[in-house]
Task: structure prediction
Amino acid sequence: MLSLIWHGGKRAWRDLKELPLRAAVALGASGLGQPARPAQLFKAYGIVLPIGLFAWVTMPQITLVMTPSIDAWVVHRSPGPVHRGDLVSFTLVDAIAGPRPVAVTKYALCMPGDRIVMVEKPASLGPRRNGWYYCNGRLVGVSKPATRSGKALRHWQPASPHIPADMIFVGSSHPDGYDSRYYGPVAIVRLTRMEKLL
Result:
């Protein structure tokens, strides 16, 4: 135990002795033991601080999209009312999505008051059935009976022929997308309108 204390103390003393030399290098000296050059430090600040400030202000405003279900890699918040075809982001809490809430980005496909119909048709494999969703007579998506890994999926069954006044049916054209075809329309108050950057 005493040996550990002794060696720790020696190391701390050595680091403490080198502190002024390291400070000189941090202040722009060309090497240990060389005089400080504060002008170098201020040049570094002039480069690093604006970049850091830009990242600090910009990063919370953008979202990286990690899904092939929409044709965007980077989106940002765009205040305003949501219209059909707009990108929207919200937090999804669902067992299929995982144990933790997940931020997802989808398209607003069927708006409040629009007519929504789901027609079940036989699936291409096995005795199960797919759900074909039509918004105002236009096909907006097909739900599958199971995930690619074989986990069973439930189709959302519309309770009425129209999307409720405070809800929007969200989704994408991707055949494996997990969206309103499975969990139903999303409340408008939960949606944030987004715009594509990349």
Q: What stands out?
A: Strands lie at 62-64, 74-77, 87-92, 102-110, 116-122, 129-135, 138-143, 167-171, 186-187, 192-196. DSSP finds three helices and ten strands in the chain.
